[in-house]
Design a protein that fits this description.
Layout (H helix, E strand, L loop, with lengths): L8 H4 L26 H5 E3 L5 E4 L4 E4 L11 E2 L4 E8 L2 E9 L4 E7 L5 E5 L2 E3 L1 E3 L7 E5 L9 E4 L15 E3 L2 E3 L3 E4 L5 E4 L4 E4 L16 E7 L5 E7 L4 E8 L2 E8 L2 E6 L2 E5 L4 E2 L8 E4 L11 E5 L6 E9 L4 E4 L1 E4 L6 E7 L9 E5 L4 E7 L5 E4 L5 E3 L4 E7 L4 E5 L3 E2 L6 E2 L7 E4 L7 E5 L11 E11 L3 E6 L1 E7 L6 E7 L1 H4 L2 E6 L4
Parallel strand pairs: 9-12, 23-26, 35-41, 37-40
Antiparallel strand pairs: 1-2, 2-3, 4-20, 5-6, 5-45, 6-7, 7-8, 10-11, 11-17, 12-13, 14-17, 15-16, 18-19, 19-20, 20-21, 21-22, 24-25, 24-28, 25-30, 26-27, 27-30, 28-29, 31-32, 32-33, 32-34, 34-35, 35-36, 36-45, 38-39, 39-44, 40-41, 41-44, 42-43
């Protein structure tokens, strides 16, 4: 069983490394996001006879419909993109973007031309073919996929850039077909049975993919406050503004608990464990190494985070990439195989120099939205790990009920596979659910009819768990029949159905108009 997915993370994910300073694939002089110079804050000039803001350092013109700077809050709709927000007891939280020209939700991604753009939300699916030469593509949509969009993306290709996910070629959905036989091209073109669900032919007449130049482009602006930390903004060329996490003069950062405080630490982090350390020599002495995931277009790492089961988190400067052998010490010193990338560990970071952050709950009633404040009490970006809280502090995530209403369900709620179909009594009146080893108090059943806009999940039923149950499992099929004993390797609990919107705080989805 799975816990309730964090359904809004793709919209608010923090950039996973330093500032993506160049979104031009030709690497020409288009660096509009140099966080060291904060060019927009210092050099923007406004032509009072037009609505363009011109950055004098980059000669980049951005149509902002009269909005020459960031909004008072965390987001602003543009002339084409509309910001959707959750309304929560007087506070607001970002829900997503809608491209009004294409009439489809979209999300910031690195498009196929290398620029950061608002790419239509689409299913990321594998290709099959309609013919024995594997030249007429069909696109298979799995039964459990959730595509709230008339667009599909071809799997494979594209590279993430500085933490922003990469889009692949995007096609508009044209027609649907369900052939008995389809063809796969790996390792060679061969027939295969059409999978259950739907096979969508998105390119039957040789239509070309969506041209990324037709999509709204974003630039990145880092605006630190006097405290040293501020907001990383995404600015659309239609005037859209989105707060996309935190930034210092060195680039993107995100909260991390270190030296007894929450500090804003660079988001591209290499990893080193004191419990299983790695080294560059067969004696496991020196140099010390850390594992790093390289992100194309970015530096290898902002910082090395050293952790251990009983050790306090410590931060180190990243050194050069290590090209020699790697040895690990787990009892004895032995060679480490594989193609992982390692970097050398440099000097320890003085964490007292890093800006501090404090979470602040905003709103009233039964639900709060979490935002961060800096040391001066200036409100910054939303908390990207638990953006919503119930009044008792329990994190929750937006879901849609079968009636189309939205509510905030506890984030640790379990998905009950197949619904609650077992009973703990011979009259089949006391439902029980298999919960594994989870201690969650709430479960949910996914409805079978797909998506519900930005919430992604459609919850058909919500169940509150009661006491543990051991004994015979009964099943109702005309009559109540004892089928089998509870599985000894699993945990079962009594369950009671409740109404989603009656049991949990309601959320209102609002689309902000253009300025």
């Amino acid at each position: 069983m799975r816990g309730l997915r964090s359904v809004l993370v793709p919209w608010l994910a923090l950039a996973a490394c330093g500032a993506p300073t160049d979104t031009d694939p030709d690497d020409t002089d288009t660096d509009t996001t140099d966080s060291d110079t904060d060019t927009v804050a210092e050099t923007d000039t406004v032509d009072t006879t037009h609505t363009d803001v011109v950055d004098s350092d980059t000669d980049t013109t951005v149509d902002t419909d009269g909005a020459s700077g960031p909004p008072d809050d965390l987001f602003r709709s543009g002339s084409r993109l509309r910001v959707q927000v959750w309304s929560v007891g007087g506070a607001y939280a970002f829900a997503g973007l809608v491209d009004t020209l294409l009439d489809v939700p979209c999300t910031p991604q690195t498009a196929t031309d290398g620029a950061l753009r608002c790419v239509p939300r689409a299913g990321d699916i594998d290709a099959v073919f309609a013919d024995a030469s594997c030249t007429s593509p069909l696109f298979y949509l799995p039964e459990d996929a959730c595509v709230a969009s008339p667009y599909l993306q071809l799997s494979g290709g594209g590279q993430a850039r500085c933490g922003f996910p990469a889009s692949h070629e995007t096609f508009a959905l044209r027609s649907v077909t369900t052939p008995a036989t389809v063809y796969a091209d790996r390792p060679t073109c061969h027939p295969t049975t059409a999978p259950a669900g739907g096979v969508f032919d998105v390119d039957p007449l040789g239509d070309t993919p969506v041209d990324p130049a037709d999509l709204v482009a974003f630039t990145v602006q880092d605006r630190p406050e006097a405290s040293g930390v501020g907001i990383r903004w995404l600015v659309g060329d239609d005037g859209t503004w989105l707060a996309w996490g935190h930034a210092t003069a060195s680039g993107a950062c995100s909260p991390l608990e270190v030296d007894g405080a929450t500090r804003c630490v660079g988001t591209s982090r290499a990893e080193r464990s004191v419990d299983a350390p790695t080294f560059g020599d067969a004696a496991c002495s020196d140099p010390k190494l850390a594992f790093v995931r390289l992100d194309p277009g970015c530096t290898a790492a902002d910082v090395i985070v050293q952790t251990g089961a009983s050790a306090a988190t410590r931060l180190f400067q990243p050194g050069p990439v290590w090209t020699g052998g790697v040895w690990g010490r787990a009892g004895t010193c032995r060679a480490v195989s594989g193609s992982d990338t390692w970097i050398q560990v440099g000097d320890e970071v003085d964490t007292s120099t890093l800006p501090t952050l404090a979470p602040q709950a905003v709103g009233s009633g039964d639900l709060r939205v979490l935002r961060w404040e800096d040391a001066d009490g200036v409100r910054l970006a939303l908390d990207d790990t638990a953006r919503f809280e119930l009044a008792d502090g329990t994190p929750c995530a937006p879901v849609a009920g079968a009636d189309g209403a939205f509510a905030c369900l506890p984030a640790d709620a379990l998905e009950i596979a197949g619904g609650v179909v077992w009973y703990g009594d011979a009259a089949c009146t006391l439902p029980v659910a298999m919960v594994g080893q989870s201690t969650a108090d709430v479960g949910w059943v996914r409805a079978q009819d797909g998506c519900a806009g930005p919430a992604d999940e459609v919850v058909g039923e919500v169940w509150t768990f009661g006491a543990d149950y051991e004994g015979t499992l009964y099943q109702l099929g005309g009559t109540c029949v004892g089928s089998l004993p509870t599985f000894p390797s699993q945990r079962w609990r009594f369950a009671t159905a409740s109404a989603l919107t009656a049991a949990y705080p309601a959320l209102t989805l609002t689309t902000l108009p253009a300025p």
